[in-house]
Design a protein that fits this description.
The complex is a heterodimer of chains A (about 400) and B (about 290). Chain A contains 15 helices and six strands. Chain A is mainly α and about 400 residues long. In chain A, helix 2 packs antiparallel against helix 9, helix 2 packs parallel to helix 11 and helix 4 packs antiparallel against helix 6. The longest helix of chain A is centred in the middle third of the chain and has 37 residues. Chain A is flat and about 80 Å long. The two termini of chain A are about 45 Å apart. With about 290 residues, chain B is an alpha/beta fold. Chain B has a six-stranded mixed beta sheet with strand order 6-7-8-3-9-10, with helices on both faces. In chain B, helix 4 crosses helix 5, helix 5 packs parallel to helix 6 and helix 8 packs across helix 10. Chain B is globular, with a radius of gyration of 22 Å. The two termini of chain B are about 40 Å apart. The chains are: A mainly alpha (about 400), B alpha/beta (about 290). At the A-B interface, helix 1 and helix 10 of A face helix 2, strand 6 and helix 3 of B.
Chain lengths: ~400, ~290
């Protein structure tokens, strides 16, 4: 009962906070600028000029394209990599270039001199015909190719598109009519339109919910001390767990409330589009992604905000979460459709691609459970620290702020 | 229920610095004054009783409950810290309502108690006034209202009159006396006048130690015969200050009435007469006896 009353009082307090209104504006602006409107879904017509593109799953295509891109980058000695998610331009030394050529000799069956000469001409003339005679040996298996390109990735310092798990990025092919029909069928039959749009909604909202809630959390956690209320609150009978959890849940609820409200807009649009196709949407599709996909991100972000603020009595959490957010966003920059791993912000920046989503679904579930558990553990740690501070048993602020201030 | 607070050999260290030095104290029902200069250890002592600080050694029991059992003790205590405030955007009513919830009061209890208390602390007309718009005195009154909101058996107030104007100070002292009733009220202050006006039992702290524990009468008794008053010319005042611990100087045109501490009548000051000490004199005498007045 006490918890419920406190929860509503905390929600009311959040509503009085300027930080919350800045959060609302940011979320709304981000939603309007990124989400766009739900396009009409109709069965593709045969004979269209283009049906979009997809990554090729043909190994020969992948090998040829990767080699082509490698020769181009080698000719300019300028390689794009993303070691920790950030773009990094790599220039190789003479020795390192030699190593690359040696690997290429194994792959294409030409001599090093021939390769060097061809690449040199390609670099100076930008004439692709100079390297057209260089192609992957017929007898080379895909595994051998990947192994060799992993070595190239290593020479580049890691994080390149030449690593086996990213090498598919090199081969884009146009979708066939059948591909387009399959996409349409999945959107209608499996996603009921709403599922496809719920995923892209979660993708966009996930980006902003990976950082903004930390501001609300830090503001709330600092508020007691700034208002000189901490000592009075500490002296009250209410348990530390109830105080921390009610504040936490209130922030989560108030953070997700506008997200839920915003989701009504695309949901209504998908209802209209689905009706046009004679089907009924999954009315809970957006709610499912909010609770299953976005909630763990918010739980984690707010937990970090609470814990670090309790430990430091300062806004350090914003800096830490900010760095974590940047790494998370940029780590996915090489694959915006279906990047999950252990990233805080899973990406799925497309409408449809149901089969891709199915292939990453288990990873996504694992990822979301992981962040939920971590968030709960961090929250438990926050309660313990709050309680110890309340009893005067620890003074993180003295120790840490001394170090931080130097 | 044993209505007393017992501190048994309590010490508290902040790193190397000893804030409480083997404190032994029993506090019974009624107004209890804790006097001492700034930094004497009063706030630390109060916080250890209020469960906000864990003693480094020793034991504290509040009405028979050890302070280690945090929640049970907090239920019994109403605490007004030295620099009390509330969220600036909350009104007086909202503040008490919020803190009432934290004290475990039901909605009906809060609805009944809060208007009563606002009336009692003379904030009835400020029910909707935001905390940020309140004067220092109003905030202290709001502070005492929140301290007694859950009807605690023990009220601990830390330097409640510091920074208040004389009128507010008197009003606040009266309010404390009024609410004391059957409770234990601990008033910590460095202002002797507050103690004089409200408390019969007092303890005086210095450098983390209790250097006096008894009644105000006993404190006065100790100083009796050691406080002198002399009428001297203004130019003699500085010379007297060098020789004696002066407790008060009252300038009167070309002369000055000086009160000072001395063990016996001094020949050099024939006009000096022993006088009855007031509490301020007695406090100064105590500090003088215990290592001098700083």
């Amino acid at each position: 009962m006490m918890g419920k009353t406190l929860f509503f009082k905390e929600c009311k307090e959040i509503l009085k906070s300027i930080t919350y209104y800045i959060f609302l504006i940011c979320v709304a602006v981000f939603f309007v600028s990124q989400m766009g409107s739900v396009a009409a879904v109709s069965k593709p017509l045969p004979g269209a000029e283009s049906y979009g593109w997809k990554y090729s799953d043909d190994e020969a295509d992948i090998m040829a394209s990767a080699l082509d891109n490698l020769l181009f980058e080698l000719s300019r000695n300028s390689f794009g990599t993303y070691p920790i998610g950030f773009y990094k331009q790599v220039t190789l030394s003479e020795d390192e270039q030699e190593e690359i050529y040696e690997i290429l000799v194994e792959l294409v069956g030409k001599t090093k001199e021939e390769l060097v000469e061809a690449v040199k001409i390609y670099g100076s003339s930008m004439d692709h015909s100079a390297v057209e005679s260089i192609y992957i040996r017929q007898d080379l298996s895909y595994e051998e190719f990947c192994h060799a390109f992993n070595r190239i990735d290593k020479i580049l310092g890691g994080g390149s598109y030449y690593r086996d798990d990213k090498i598919y990025n090199h081969a884009r092919v146009g979708k066939t009519y059948q591909d387009a029909v399959d996409d349409y069928r999945y959107i209608i039959e499996k996603d009921h339109v709403s599922g496809a749009y719920a995923r892209i909604f979660a993708d966009y909202m996930g980006i902003i919910l990976g950082i903004l809630p930390v501001f609300i959390a830090v503001t709330r956690a600092l508020k007691d001390r700034r208002a000189k209320v901490d000592q009075v609150i500490y002296s009250k009978a209410c348990s530390s767990a109830v105080i921390v959890i009610t504040r936490y849940v209130a922030i989560i609820a108030m953070t997700l409330l506008p997200v839920f409200i915003l989701s009504i807009n695309p949901l209504l649009q998908t209802i209209y589009v689905a009706a046009d196709n004679g089907i009924t949407v999954d009315y809970l599709a957006f709610l499912k992604v909010i609770l299953g996909w976005l909630l763990p991100t918010v739980l984690f972000t707010v937990s970090i905000g609470f814990l670090l603020t309790e430990m430091t009595n300062g806004p350090l959490a914003i800096l830490i979460q900010g760095l974590f957010w940047i790494i998370s966003v940029f780590a996915a920059s090489t694959n915006l459709i279906g990047y999950v791993g252990w990233n805080l912000i899973p990406r799925f920046n497309t409408v449809g691609s149901y089969t891709v989503f199915q292939s990453i679904f288990d990873d996504l579930v694992r990822n979301r459970i992981f962040y939920t558990i971590i968030a709960i553990l961090i929250l438990a740690g926050t309660i313990i620290i709050y309680d110890k501070k309340r009893r005067g048993r620890i003074h993180f602020d003295r120790a840490l702020s001394k170090h931080i201030k130097g | 229920m044993d209505m007393k607070i017992v501190l048994n050999d309590v010490s508290k260290f902040y790193g190397q610095k000893q804030a409480l030095d083997h404190v032994n104290l029993e506090i019974h029902k009624g107004m209890f004054g804790l006097l001492g200069r700034n930094g004497a250890g009063k706030t630390t002592l109060m916080k250890t009783i209020t469960t906000l600080l864990a003693p480094s050694s020793g034991e504290i029991t509040v009405c028979g409950v050890k302070v280690k059992e945090g929640v049970k003790v907090r239920e019994m205590i109403g605490y007004l810290p030295q620099d009390f405030s509330m969220y600036g955007n909350m009104s007086a009513y909202e503040s008490l309502d919020y803190l009432g919830v934290l004290s475990g009061l039901s909605k009906s209890e809060r609805k009944e108690r809060i208007p009563e208390l606002l009336e009692k602390v003379n904030l009835r007309s400020n029910t909707r006034t935001k905390v940020k718009a309140m004067s220092g005195g109003m905030r202290r009154r709001l502070g005492i209202a929140q301290a007694i909101l859950h009807n605690p058996r023990i009220i601990i107030v830390d330097e409640p009159t510091a920074g208040l104007d004389p009128e507010e100070r008197i009003r606040f002292r009266n309010l404390l006396t009024e609410i004391a009733g059957e409770r234990i009220v601990i008033l910590s202050t460095h202002i002797v006048g507050d103690i004089e006006a409200t408390c019969e039992h007092i303890a005086v702290m210095d450098q983390g130690k209790i250097i006096f524990n008894g009644t105000v009468s006993q404190l006065l008794e100790d100083a009796n015969g050691n406080i002198y008053e002399a009428k001297v010319s203004r130019i003699e005042v500085e010379e007297i200050k060098k020789q004696y611990e002066v407790t008060n100087v009252l300038m009167q045109s070309t002369e000055a009435l000086v009160r000072f501490i001395a063990n016996k009548k001094e020949e050099g000051l024939p006009t000096a007469e022993v006088v009855l000490p007031n509490v301020e004199d007695a406090y100064m005498y105590l500090m003088y006896k215990n290592g001098g007045i700083k």
